[in-house]
Design the sequence.
C-alpha cells in the first residue's frame, strides 16, 4: 500500500463519520468533487494545505489524519512481512 492509498482510505472513513458526501466536502474545502474522489481512490497526492483544509472541514486535527495514514501503512507493512 502506498501513502496515497492509505490517505484515501482514511479520508473516506472520516468523511463517512461526519456524514458528508464528496460533493459537500469539496464545497466546504473549495475543491472539486472529482479531486476528492481521486484522493479517496489513492490517485492523487494531497498537499499539506489540502490536508489542513480537509481536516478543518472534518473537525479533526491534521495530525489525526497523518497518524491514521501512518498506522495503516505500518499495519500493511507488518502483514506483508509476515506473509499475510
Sequence:
Amino acid at each position: 500500500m502506498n501513502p496515497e492509498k492509505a490517505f484515501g482510505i482514511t479520508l473516506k472513513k472520516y468523511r463517512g463519520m461526519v456524514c458528508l458526501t464528496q460533493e459537500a466536502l469539496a464545497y466546504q474545502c473549495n475543491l472539486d468533487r472529482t479531486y476528492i474522489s481521486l484522493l479517496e481512490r489513492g490517485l492523487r497526492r494531497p498537499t499539506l494545505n489540502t490536508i489542513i483544509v480537509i481536516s478543518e472541514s472534518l473537525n479533526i486535527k491534521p495530525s489525526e489524519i497523518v497518524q491514521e495514514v501512518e498506522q495503516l501503512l505500518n499495519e500493511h507493512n507488518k502483514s506483508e512481512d509476515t506473509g499475510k
Observations:
- Residues 3-81 form a domain with the 434 Repressor (Amino-terminal Domain) fold (CATH 1.10.260.40).
- Residues 2 and 73 are 7 Å apart (CA to CA).
- The radius of gyration is 13 Å.
